[in-house]
Hints:
By secondary structure, the chain is mainly β. The protein is built from no helices and eleven strands.
Amino acid sequence: EVQLVExxxxxxxxxxSLRLSCAASGFTVDDYAVSWVRQAPGKGLExxxxxxxxxxxxxxxxxxxxxxxxxxxxxxxxxxxxxNSLKSEDTAVYYCAxxxxxxxxxxxxxxxxxQVTVSS
Length: 120
């Protein structure tokens, strides 16, 4: 059974940092592309970042480039999202999902999401 479980969300002040984790089971993260996607209150899904471990490649949305870093730990079968210099605009529910595409239907498994709130 494939499962993705996000953790690490919470309340942080603008300019602060937070690290999200996505623990995977039922598959090996090294064998699939894994992405972070977020949804701000009342808004649609926004792709944030993807990691392709098999080719050691990462991609980022322009809105987070230079501030966020996606990485993985194969031994722990976990993907991370290090978020620095957080802005209020980053407030959203953050999901990890298996796959990488601008078409959400092409992500075959999703986690339950973790809330990130950036506020003073």
